[in-house]
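Help! Submission page says 'invalid entity' but I think these are all valid:
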Amino acid sequence: MSREALTPHPSSFRDPNARIHVSGDRILRQLTADAIGNFRHVRATGVLDHLSNKGWVVPSTELEPEGCGAEIGSAREPALWLEHPRLPFISYPYEWPFRALQRAAVLQLEIYLEALKKGVTLADASAYNIQFDGARPIFIDIASFRPYKDGELWAAHSQFCEQFLNPLLLQAYTAVPYNPWYRGALEGIPTNHLASLLPYSSGFDWRVFTNVFMQARLQRSATGGETRRLRQLRQRSLPRRAFEALLRQLHGWILKLKPAGVETTTWRQYEATRLYDKPQQEARLRFVHRFVASVRPAMLWDLGCNAGEFSAAALESGAQRVIGFDSDHGALAAAYERAEFSSLSFLPLFLDAANPSPSQGWAERERQGLTSRGPADALLALAFEHHLTIGRNIPLPEFLDWLLRLAPTGVVEFVAKQDPQIQTMLAIREDIFSTYSLDVFMHALGQRATIVEHTPLADSNRHLFWYRR
Amino acid sequence: MSKLSDFHRLAAVAVLLIALPVECLAYVDPAAGSLLLQGIIGGIAACVGLGGAYWRKILRYFSRNESETQSRIHD
């Protein structure tokens, strides 16, 4: 393999001494001479093995230059190469439901506390350094670890606040979901902006007062300060016990935060109130079982996953992993609870399907769009199509083109206009969908894919299609 | 007793570290507000440590007087 083939991953630029390279299916990390000393020191403390044995940190293998292919030996700079296992799906904090971001924050703090026991700390506290294996968070940036210097300030405190704490506080105190803001801001929610939004009464909690209001006030007072004064700031100290106490305080606090406003969303009640009747639901489950048992996808995407009933069924029928997508925060909360409670290989993520996560960030390549992270091996789109085609005016053929780009095969449910749910959707708006019909749908799908199976759901205006590109 | 020594250690470390500049090496730009906040937390921790150490000294002083009185009574 030529050296040109080893270009750094577009998201791996913040630490120039430890960049990630993707080579085929392999994930390689190049540590430059400047980073090797830190890494050796940290590794010698045993903290990396300890945390990786606990499943908290992604494992890494040191590569021997002569034994691992030309691409390693051909790099000009003196370097140490590490290899990490490839993660099946990369997700971003702005896609995580509240509970997932909360779990990620707690893991980040626990890693700090465990590492400190061995005299090690982390250079940053980026939420993008955490990924998920099912509903279980795992830390992926082992180059963040470095020796702890007694009394040093926690340089990443403000980053931790912006990327973990502030989004959680926003939703917990104002019932405003953080996802769209986080997606737009990427680096998280600035503390001074959050301070402008939180009710003053929240400041009676001294943790909100110190971490939000006081920090924002101090930041304001420091802005415009002389360079000399700002440099003096970095010479202050935070005793180790105070640092640990701060980490523990954040840990206990974050664990107790609850998202406001998700208990009563329509789709949270989806399974409890059975918006769909039982025979229909059982027919869907049988269809999904037939499909998944036949295709046996390594990666299945469940669009409009609700509380994860079909994702769980797909895993039972032979799918290896499922990524679920939904735009309802209540449903996502229920889905994440299901995944966590039953240790499923299922990660539910926030997605507005009419406006999916784009490729964005530095050079528009830092964070990948949804389509770039595919294709999946298969997908489910049950009771989903009408939310886009009727709810968001996406033309049927364009909806199908998009669906077929995401995976080569799948199950899609068509909902006819007579369906009570579509009638409800049309109750307060003009019906401009004169070309919306089962015939048009079947024709458009047939033009683009092979229809493997078509099953009308009894006593309803709904039809299930198993298609293959 | 072990708590007392913890307080002493904390106070000593805090005093030392306030006196000695500590260099922070990181590629994250730490916001000044966060650093100021931590400086205050660090200051409070040092005060608590020193205050605790003196408080315990005072307690020890009185408990010693008390035990001396007790032993005199028993004599």
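Support: the input was valid. A stray whitespace character was the problem, and the output above is from the cleaned input. Residues 1 and 71 of chain A are 5 Å apart (CA to CA).
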